[in-house]
């Protein structure tokens, strides 16, 4: 039941927020914030608790099962292991911050805005919890429409173009995944006589080598687009740049993670053979993404676009690590998913804070802001350092683990990926230089961070440092997840 | 005729009687409100008559009719569709100055034709039903005579429908000449008896396909659709899109099954090519439209293509998928046209993209309904269209139609593009503070009910799925 709460909280909250707008225009904000905080407390409560005995031999902490469409063997089946738990905590943490980010930025149609915001978050929470492939696709799609509205209605200049591009890319990938899900369903049904979408049942599906490979590619189509991996990344810079700040935070911090989560949860365990067969190629794809994204990031003059391309680069590490097939890289991938969510989310928030003051995202029009905004500058410094992988901050741990893990698998790809760290240093430092150092073009008279902005940025700073110094807590939690079990079996 | 015969045909008989009474009502005194109320009542009574049926199913009334669960289910569907169209019609016609009352007589008659098609098992009843429906539709399409495009649409439909009927008749004649029977089941038995179907029969089927294809509006027999959707009164367009196409589809399914159509590879390929062409032509041309009526016309062509994929998948799953998709399609089409009808004023129909600009801020409820309908057409979750598309894909995968499914995916993405574009138009910011138009109660009520149904089927489709399964299993 507690799992259902994570999905229903935001979904019901969404309707409440919309309805509350009729009473007062600022009420939806409070509704949204309360819903997110309630979810966060609930999720954190589970995390702090000592681990309960595992259920049904697997590492599930909680499971929930309820038939939905028996005709197709579809059930409302939810489960939470270490990986899902971490992702749920991240979802509600960033969700609460996203509400705070929108506090002043969104002034018109607040009801419908927070409806969409909460609905996206509900869909994302669903993706992280469901254990039924039909339902997974269902939530996968549920995320899209409200995100489309968030970008399309409250975005910047080219918002309609960006929203449509985002929508079409992800939808095309999603439909291919649907074909694969159905293929798997019928392959499983034909060989065992049981037609079901249940994840646990489908895990042990015997299938011909070529069938498995095709089905795996269908799944990967959706996840690579969402991740996004080169060359399927072109929707991302547009969507991230044009979205309102909260939209960017959710896109970068959570939506991209659903792609990574999909690979870890579904592709690797469902198609072990095909994953090994194609593993090298996906790792290479990831490495190219790291370098290509980094290079493009360096060439950008728009703050948000720059950060968007760093996402392409950082998510390349996820792809490299996921297909390295060892414990070390897997831990790194989970760390990367979390730290990237935190650090990139923070950078987008900073972009939003700057935009509110300067009304521009052009790096060329900024410069010398340190004098005016020392507080914001310090915080930016922390996240720029995180982004370039400075030891002591979360991202370093993540990228180090991935590199160490992938070195064991394919040294050459690890070398390529490691070059990415150099590129990261260059583009990250450029942010600092262009925005906060150098000569200011004009005398800025700007207010430093307000209380609200401090409240939303400081927790991120604390978390990223905590993750850098004490990563063991996260790694221990993530160790109890389906894919890690798969790796262990393979190594023995 | 026994009592049971009459009971089985009760919905048809009731509507026939209602149309006669309606005619007399007009003769006594013209009153739009009375006429509307009477027709609505007739539809509701006919719907209720569905619950009073002979116990033995299927119930054959030789030689023309068969009443089985399949026919009953679809009779319910068509009557409900007709009823929804009726509820949306009142305000639309009330605004216009032409005489309104005959519209209801024609609508009753057209529905009678549709119902006859649903339970016909014989060429004669097929043709009678088809012509009853077509001839009423000529009148309905050209009903608003003073408007420029309605004559054009009416004449176009008259000529093309007459032509296609001629093809159909000739096809039937050829099949009859060879097989010596006009009974669907009889033809099936005859074909089982001969090793290879004679050329005349194959040619006959081909000619019949033209007639059927025309009514379904599938490529290459689709040319009429956009012009007629554009020229016809909006409720009539909704009616053609749902009742006319739906009853023809049901007839096709029955005929195909009775003559064992799935045994013929050549027929399969003909339908496969038609399905592919319908998807691509429909979606591609819909992309170019700035007129929402034409857009919906092209989109309905492509939806027929999707349905044909499920039809081709055959087996249980395929037939179930066709039925589910048809239900979802009927709901969404009436919903979409209904929104257009409610937005139209006495002079112009709301049909250009510009008419919908900022609708969400002017008429939030209507815009929400329209968005739900469009998203359902696009196959987005939480709507019936999603489950329908899922059903079609599932049926296709189970029969291994990978090529057709790959094309369906491509087309879904193309489709998404223009549906979403329309949604985006509705969410555009407004320049000026709008004057809110008062909306008619019945229209909003019907549309709200349709939207709830759409969401209900999207979230909890098990009830409908169980119904369809039960009906399909009972047919054997």
Task: Explain what the structure shows.
By secondary structure, chain A is mainly alpha-helical. Chain A has one domain. Chain A contains 20 helices and two strands. Chain A has a two-stranded antiparallel ribbon. In chain A, strand 1 (62-69) and strand 2 (74-80) form a beta hairpin. Chain A starts with a helix and ends with a helix. The model of chain A is unreliable at 488-492 (pLDDT under 50). With 476 residues, chain B is mainly α. Chain B has a domain at 290-476. Helix content of chain B is 77%, strand content 1%. Chain B contains 20 helices and two strands. A two-stranded antiparallel sheet of chain B has the order 1-2. In chain B, a hairpin with a 3-residue loop joins strand 1 (59-61) and strand 2 (65-67). The longest helix of chain B is centred in the middle third of the chain and has 32 residues, at 148-179. The interface between A and B is medium-sized, with 31 and 27 residues.
Secondary-structure map:
The complex is a heterodimer of chains A (492) and B (476).
Chain A: H1 2-20, H2 27-48, E1 62-69, E2 74-80, H3 82-105, H4 110-129, H5 133-142, H6 144-154, H7 159-192, H8 199-202, H9 209-226, H10 235-242, H11 245-270, H12 272-299, H13 303-322, H14 327-358, H15 374-388, H16 394-409, H17 411-435, H18 451-469, H19 472-479, H20 482-491
Antiparallel strand pairs in A: 1-2
Helix pairs in contact in A: 1-2, 1-4, 2-3, 2-4, 3-4, 3-11, 3-14, 3-19, 4-5, 4-6, 4-11, 5-7, 6-7, 7-9, 7-10, 9-11, 9-12, 10-11, 10-13, 11-13, 11-14, 12-13, 12-17, 13-14, 13-16, 13-17, 14-15, 14-16, 14-18, 14-19, 15-17, 15-18, 16-17, 16-18
Chain B: H1 3-8, H2 10-28, H3 32-49, E1 59-61, E2 65-67, H4 69-94, H5 101-118, H6 123-141, H7 148-179, H8 184-193, H9 199-216, H10 224-231, H11 234-258, H12 265-287, H13 292-313, H14 315-343, H15 359-362, H16 364-378, H17 384-398, H18 402-426, H19 441-459, H20 462-475
Antiparallel strand pairs in B: 1-2
